[in-house]
């Protein structure tokens, strides 16, 4: 089980987008995340008439390393750490370390 998953709300803790919040759109491999509105770059794109793609300069989100983000705790309104434990049904669950609350996705 991963500490940060798709659908989690995260906050950037280092880099050019420090302090911005976003939702994880997907995970790429074991170490990279695609976060909505984070690490946005402008990219030159060639037109492709056969697929209907127009050319020009487009803005898209690039991946960010998992160590540069932390999960966002809405009760504390700041970044938090993630822990694991077994619930009453012996199922592994995630929880916020600071408030001891379960993380619901």
Describe this structure in words.
The radius of gyration is 17 Å and the shape is elongated. Strands 6-3-2-1-7-8 form a six-stranded antiparallel beta sheet, with no helix packed on it. The protein has strands at residues 9-12, 21-28, 32-35, 40-45, 56-61, 64-65, 69-73, 78-80, 82-86, 92-96. The chain starts with 8 loop residues before the first strand and ends in a 9-residue tail after the last strand. The protein has a domain at 9-79: SH3 type barrels. β7 and β8 (78-80) form a beta hairpin. The chain is built from no helices and ten strands. It is an all-beta fold.
Short description:
With 105 residues, this protein is mostly beta strands. The protein has strands spanning 9-12, 21-28, 32-35, 40-45, 56-61, 64-65, 69-73, 78-80, 82-86, 92-96.
Gyration radius from CA atoms, angstroms: 17 Å
Report the span from N to C terminus.
Answer: 13 Å
CATH domain fold name of the domain at 9-79:
SH3 type barrels
Overall residue-averaged pLDDT value: 95
The helix/strand series, from N terminus to C terminus, equals EEEEEEEEEE
Amount of beta strand: over 45%
Based on Cα principal axes, name the global outline.
elongated
- What does the main sheet amount to? 6 strands, antiparallel
Helix content: under 10%
| Uncertain stretches of 5 or more adjacent residues | none
Looking at the overall shape, the CATH architecture of the domain at 9-79 is: Roll
User: How many DSSP-defined strands?
Assistant: 10
- What is the CATH C-level name of the domain at 9-79? Mainly Beta
Strand order of the largest sheet: 6-3-2-1-7-8
Helix/strand structural class: mainly beta
Continuous helix count: 0
């Amino acid at each position: 089980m991963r500490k940060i998953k798709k659908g989690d709300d995260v906050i950037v803790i280092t880099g050019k987008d420090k302090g911005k919040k976003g939702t994880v759109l997907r995970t790429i491999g074991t170490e990279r995340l695609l976060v909505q509105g984070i690490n946005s770059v402008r990219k030159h794109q060639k037109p492709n008439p056969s697929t209907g793609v127009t050319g020009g300069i487009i803005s898209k989100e690039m991946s960010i390393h998992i160590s540069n983000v932390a999960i966002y705790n809405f009760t504390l309104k700041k970044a938090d750490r993630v822990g694991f434990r077994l619930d009453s049904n012996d199922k592994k669950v995630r929880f916020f370390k600071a408030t001891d609350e379960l993380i619901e996705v």
